[in-house]
Amino acid sequence: MTGPADLIFYLLAAMTVGAAILVAILPNIVYSAVALLFSFAGVAGLYVYLSADFLAATQVLIYVGGILILILFAVFLSSRISDVRLSNPSRFHWQAAILCLGLFGILSYTAVSTVFPVKTGLTYQPTTAEIGELLMTRYLLPFEVASVLLLATLIGAALLSRPDGGRKRPGDMEEPKQ
Amino acid sequence: MSLEKLLVVSAALFCCGLYAILTRRNAVAVLMGVELVLNAANINFVAFSHYVSRVIGGQIFAIFVIVLAAAEAAVALAIFLRLYATTGTVEVDTADHLKG
Predict the structure, then answer these.
(1) Going by C-beta distance under 8 Å and a sequence separation of 6 or more, which residues neighbour residue A23?
(2) Is A63 among the domain residues?
(3) pTM
């Protein structure tokens, strides 16, 4: 059976995987970052097909809008723009290609030959309300742990990226004396 | 479109990410490979949650994976900046000061 939905699925899958291959092989790291954008956008499209609308929006907001910008910042701050063409050397091509193609063959064969207990009668419903409810009830503890982790990340990243490595400078605010 | 096709797409993403991790020497490119691997895992979570279990727990797992990926990218950027300030490059081979 082939309809427009299947055609769009194949286009999305081709975009995702093609862009991922470009990320892996392009010599210029800025091109790799742009290819990564298309790969993330394709994954967001696949989420829509899996009835995960909230997750698709989250993917676009956080991956495409946040993580990719962070990666581009890392590229521009950590390599001289003038020699960006030379900024992405690589090695072990043949060994890594053989390993990855072999692994892909094994994984694909396993996925295709295994019979999964797939349920029939798939439904497509909005998921945002249910996710919000579960995050505030059943998954409340992981949610709070994630917020603590984000706070630790915020402090740690700010401390690490200071030019003097987090040592005290004369102009810093003093801690209140007890 | 079925579960098997999504698993094959996910396996392809995983292998591309693994290839990038194995071959790249620029630490930022290695980070891109890690993000691809995390996306592959997320597709598997959501696909199994949609086709097999029919409960929404897989999507919640995927949300936590996205949160962890964001935190990891931020800390990795900070570490790369320190590495660049210290050694003048972000190649992973040069960060071997702990080698005995």
Answers:
(1) A32, A35, A36, A39, B16, B20, B32, B33, B36
(2) yes
(3) 0.87
Query: Does residue B82 sit within a domain?
Result: yes
Which domain does A39 fall in, by range?
1-81
Query: Is the CB of B68 inside 8 Å of chain A's CB atoms?
Result: yes
State the total domains in chain A.
Answer: 2
Q: How many domains does chain B have?
A: 1
Q: Do B15 and A101 touch (CB under 8 A)?
A: yes
B16, A116 in Cβ contact below 8 A? no
Kindly tell me the sign of the dihedral angle through the C-alpha atoms of A90, A96, A101, A106. negative
Q: What tens digit of pLDDT does each residue of A86-115 get? A: 545 667 788 889 999 999 999 999 998 988
Q: Which of these, B86, B72, B97, lies nearest to A165 by C-alpha position?
A: B86
One DSSP character per residue, A123-148 reads: -----HHHHHHHHHTTTHHHHHHHHH
Residue B80 maps to a domain: yes
With the CA atoms of A68, A73, A79 and A81 taken in that order, what torsion angle do they form, in degrees rounded to the nearest 10?
100
User: Distance from B29 to chain A by nearest Cα, in Å?
Assistant: 7
CB B41 within 8 A of CB B18: no
Closest among A105, A68, A88, A107 to A28, alpha carbons compared: A88
Cα distance from A178 to chain B (closest Cα, Å)?
Answer: 33
Structure confidence by residue, pLDDT tens digits, A57-83: 999 999 888 888 988 888 888 766 555
Complex-level ipTM: 0.90
Residues of chain B contacting residue A13, judged by C-beta atoms under 8 Å apart: 5, 9
